[in-house]
Amino acid sequence: MLKPELLRQWANSSEPSPLKLFRLPAVLALTYLVLGALYIFFSGRFASSLAKSIGQLEFIERYKGYAFIFVSAVGLYLLSTWLLRRIQQREHTIHDYRNKIVVAYEHSMAGLFASSIAHDINNVMMGVEFVVDGLNSQQAPLEDHLVILRKANENLKQLAGSLGKVSGHHMSDSVEAFDLAALARESIGIAALHNKVRKCIVDYSGPESLIFTGRKILFSQMLLNLIINAGDATDHHGKIMVKLFIDSSELVIEVCDDGPGIPEDMRETVMQPLFTTKSDGHGLGLISLDVCAKVHNGSVKISQSPMGGAAFEIRLPK
Hints:
Distance between the termini: 35 Å
Structural class: alpha+beta
Number of helices: 7
CATH topology of the largest domain: Heat Shock Protein 90
CATH superfamily of the largest domain: Histidine kinase-like ATPase, C-terminal domain
Order of helices and strands: HHHHEHEEHEEHEE
Strand content: 5-15%
Helix content: 55-70%
Number of domains: 2
CATH class of the largest domain: Alpha Beta
Number of strands: 7
Shape: rod-shaped
Strand order of the largest sheet: 2-4-5-7-6
CATH architecture of the largest domain: 2-Layer Sandwich
């Protein structure tokens, strides 16, 4: 993947030094000065030798000046044409490089997002595995297990669809009106089957129903990852709160926990793809958070939770 640091290094390595930038203008100015001085000196002597009177000298000097202006204008025209062509060639080269960088970046982001989706599929499959184990031990009514399996199957179909769209280098583009409050509760139910959340206390605070128009699968991925990350942060047995409310003209989604929290100097770093502090982590869980916020023109803020741990706040225009 093309990292910003590598691009900056490439840009710095290809950037000319100030000495090189001023060398060509200085050479051109000096050349013009020398040629102009030589022209004035020798043409003046030549005019003096030809002129037999002051009137003839003035006439020769006048047309000598016209000739100098004409030759200078032609020279400037040819020089500026040559320079503009060089600049145009450079611009074409830069444009081609820029397009190649954009394409490479899109490919890398598509691969990264595909990895994130695979990560989310694995999270859902862990919940399915737990349900299958429950069916074998008959710990819960069959109907409860079937409801969870149906939801898991729906999520897997949506994730598989997103994975297919990523191969075309674009994210999920299915915009629909859905009940975000119901989706939050469903995500809590699916995440609660994960081994990192199974022993946690996960609560929901928000309206019974809240209709939002957007990309439903991105919200499902985001909520699932945030809850599982919170469970991981609390060492698999803490308290997690999922909040949903309206603040002025913004929709706010907040996931809090009572874990150790995230230090201020690391709150920007944890949002970077592939960054992780876990020995078994891949740094893919928060990609869905960043994508969901950006696709819906929202913002993400990481702060300290009132519960003592980390708080992830997503604000979206309503």
